[in-house]
# Entry
Amino acid sequence: MLRDANFAIDVCIEDIRYHTGRIIDKKAASSLAARTYIEKRLNVVVSGRNGSEKSYTICTPGNAACRKLYRVKYYRTPELL
# Structure
């Protein structure tokens, strides 16, 4: 499942290191890792400037979902246009 998701990077929610120099919000990451958005049948869209750790932020809950046997697909904006 992880291979089929085509994540930009291989990272788990447990790998996130929260410190003052990082932009990642711990509450938001934990909320996404809980996978309630899947049960509610919602999509997740992340936007931001270059270098704002968007890929890192979105690949972690996707990886968590794959480990719970949900099908996940990672897309970048150019792939959707």
In short: The mean pLDDT is 81.
